[in-house]
C-alpha cells in the first residue's frame, strides 16, 4: 500500500453511467477522492432506459462492494426473471418461471439503480454539464482532460466510462463501434395492468420474446406497470430513410412496422398497434472482438467505452464489475500504474470472451432471413 505521505492520486471518471458510478462509489467508500464528469446537465436530463437483470457474480457483486445491496433488494424484482418465448402465431415455445427464492438475476429499472449510486456519492462528486472532448497523455502518468467549453484539467488517472462513442478511447485505441446489422426500434406501453390488461397478461412479469427470421418483437416488464417494447430488425442502418419514414411521425412508423410483421398474431401486433409512445430507433453497435490496446499510463477504459457489445444482458453487469475491480485495484496496488495494469490484465480477456458470446448470441436470437 502507498505510504501515508504519498499524495492521493487525482482520479477523473468520464461518464456518469453505472460503471463510472460504481468505480466512484467504491473509491469514496474507502476514503479516496474522485471526480465524475458527466455531459448531461442533470440526473434526470433524459430517460435512463429499461430494466436490467443483475447477475449474482457480476452486477450483484458490484452492488455488494458498493454497500448498496439492501437498498437494491428493496427495489429489485425477482419475479422479473420470468421469460416467455413465442413464435409468430403466439404459441408458447418456452416458459421459464423463477423458482421461489431465486434471486440469481433479479430485474431493476436502470434509472432506479443509477439513482442508488448517485445518492450514495458525496455532494459535488458528479460535475454535471461537463462534456469532455478529448484526453491527452502528458507523460509520467499524468493526463489532461479537455472540455467542450475550452477548459482543461490534469489528473493522475482518467477513466473513460463514457460509453460506445467514448471521447477517451481514441487516446488508447483507434477502434470504433461498427453497426451489427440489427436495429431495435423502441416504444412503450404505460399503466399496462389497467390500460392494457391483455398485453400485461401476454408479457407476464418479465421478458417476452417472439421471433422469426430477420425480425422479432421483445417486450420487457419494468416497474409500475410500464412495458418497453423493442421491434428488432435485421436491416440496413438507414432502413427508415430508405422507406421514406420520418421517425418523428409515429403513426407512419407504426403502419410501416405493422406491414413488416403482417401475418403475425394480433396479440403480438398489439405491442406495436397499441403503444402509448412514439418510436425511437436504436441501432446496435459493437467494437471489434477482441478489443485491446497497448497500456498507456494514466488512462484506461471501462464498460461500453472498452467493450460495447450486443445487449444480451451482460453490458451493465460487466461495466459495474469493471468499475468495482478498477477501484479495488487502486485501493490495493502500490501505484496507480500497477493498479491499471492489474485491472486491464483481467478485464480485457474477460470482455473479449463476453463480446464473442454476445455476438454469437445475437446471431441466434435474430437469425438471418432466408
UniProtKB/TrEMBL annotation:
Binding site for FAD: 53, 110, 304
Domain comment in the entry: Consists of an N-terminal FAD-binding domain with a Rossman fold and a C-terminal substrate-binding domain.
Protein name: Flavin-dependent monooxygenase
Boundaries of every FAD-binding domain copy: 11-344
Keyword check for Transit peptide: no
Binding positions for NADPH per the UniProt entry: 46
Alphabetic keyword roster: Cytoplasm, FAD, Flavoprotein, Monooxygenase, NADP, Nucleotide-binding, Oxidoreductase
Quaternary organization: Monomer.
Cofactor(s) essential for the protein: FAD
Xref: InterPro entries: FAD-bd, FAD/NAD-bd_sf, TetX_monooxygenase
Protein source organism: Streptomyces cinnamoneus (Streptoverticillium cinnamoneum)
Residue spans crossing the bilayer: none
Similarity section: Belongs to the aromatic-ring hydroxylase family. TetX subfamily.
Entry's localization field: Cytoplasm
Function summary: An FAD-requiring monooxygenase active on some tetracycline antibiotic derivatives, which leads to their inactivation. Hydroxylates carbon 11a of tetracycline and some analogs.
EC number(s) stated in the UniProt entry for this protein: 1.14.13.-
Principal localisation: cytoplasm
GO BP term, example: response to antibiotic
Catalytic activity: a tetracycline + NADPH + O2 + H(+) = an 11a-hydroxytetracycline + NADP(+) + H2O
GO cellular component: cytoplasm
GO molecular function terms noted in the UniProt entry: FAD binding; monooxygenase activity
Amino acid at each position: 500500500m502507498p505510504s501515508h505521505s504519498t499524495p492521493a492520486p487525482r482520479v477523473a471518471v468520464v461518464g456518469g453511467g453505472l460503471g463510472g458510478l460504481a468505480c466512484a462509489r467504491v473509491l469514496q467508500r474507502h476514503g479516496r477522492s474522485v471526480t465524475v464528469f458527466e455531459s448531461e446537465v442533470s440526473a434526470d436530463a433524459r430517460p435512463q432506459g429499461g430494466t436490467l437483470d443483475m447477475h449474482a457474480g457480476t452486477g450483484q457483486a458490484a452492488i455488494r462492494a458498493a454497500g448498496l445491496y439492501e437498498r437494491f433488494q428493496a427495489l429489485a424484482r425477482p419475479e422479473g426473471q420470468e421469460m416467455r418465448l413465442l413464435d409468430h402465431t403466439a404459441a408458447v415455445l418456452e416458459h421459464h418461471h423463477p423458482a421461489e427464492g431465486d434471486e440469481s438475476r433479479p430485474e431493476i429499472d436502470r434509472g432506479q439503480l443509477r439513482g442508488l449510486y448517485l445518492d450514495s456519492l458525496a455532494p459535488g462528486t458528479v460535475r454535471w454539464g461537463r462534456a469532455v472532448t478529448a484526453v491527452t497523455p502528458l507523460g509520467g502518468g499524468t493526463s489532461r482532460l479537455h472540455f467542450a467549453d475550452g477548459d482543461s484539467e490534469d489528473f493522475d488517472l482518467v477513466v473513460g466510462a463514457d460509453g460506445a462513442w467514448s471521447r477517451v478511447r481514441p487516446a488508447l485505441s483507434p477502434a470504433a463501434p461498427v453497426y451489427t446489422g440489427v436495429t431495435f426500434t423502441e416504444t412503450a406501453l404505460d399503466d399496462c395492468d389497467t390500460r392494457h390488461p391483455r398485453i400485461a397478461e401476454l408479457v407476464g412479469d418479465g421478458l417476452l420474446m417472439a421471433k422469426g427470421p430477420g425480425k422479432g418483437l421483445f417486450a420487457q416488464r419494468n416497474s409500475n406497470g410500464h412495458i418497453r417494447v423493442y421491434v428488432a430488425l435485421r436491416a440496413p442502418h438507414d432502413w427508415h430513410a430508405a422507406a421514406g419514414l420520418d421517425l418523428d411521425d409515429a403513426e407512419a412508423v407504426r403502419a410501416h412496422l405493422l406491414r413488416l410483421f403482417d401475418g403475425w398474431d394480433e396479440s403480438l401486433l398489439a405491442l406495436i398497434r397499441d403503444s402509448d409512445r412514439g418510436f425511437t430507433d436504436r441501432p446496435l453497435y459493437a467494437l471489434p472482438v477482441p478489443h485491446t490496446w497497448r497500456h498507456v499510463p494514466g488512462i484506461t477504459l471501462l464498460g461500453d467505452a472498452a467493450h460495447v457489445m450486443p445487449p444480451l444482458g451482460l453490458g451493465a453487469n460487466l461495466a459495474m464489475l469493471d468499475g468495482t475491480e478498477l477501484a479495488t485495484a487502486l485501493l490495493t496496488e502500490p501505484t496507480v500504474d500497477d493498479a491499471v495494469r492489474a485491472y486491464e490484465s483481467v478485464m480485457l480477456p474477460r470482455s473479449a470472451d463476453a463480446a464473442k458470446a454476445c455476438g454469437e448470441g445475437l446471431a441466434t436470437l435474430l437469425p438471418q432471413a432466408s
